[in-house]
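Reply to dn_fold:

You asked what the input looked like. This is it:
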Amino acid sequence: MSTIEEPEPTRPWRPDDGPRPQVWTWPLNDRPALEVWSGGRWRYAPVRARQDWPDGTVRYQVEVDLHGDTRVVTRTYVWPQEGLRVAHGSGSEPSRAADGQHRGGLPRAPHRRPHKGPQDGSATGS
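and this is what came back:
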């Protein structure tokens, strides 16, 4: 039996939280990914967005199949937590713009992605 605790999802930003967080995205064909501990297994979770909150917390919005039954849900987690780990980084620089480059396309195989991204020791850094 594992002693790893499943990560606790967090709620989305609300206006009464103060200033909006800065949101970073990657091209859909080159997103970083985390692994989420759920149901006694690590589950692959591509990152939809990184949120840098004014209070200094970092939150990752991911897509994950929590039960291994192919039902993918979107969850947001505060980083770091014991039940989260880096699966791989992205070869693309993140952007705060919602442009065509950051939508559509199929993901590349993880072994082709160089490990680089924000260089601040975050989940998506190298």
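The radius of gyration is 14 Å.
Hope that clears it up.
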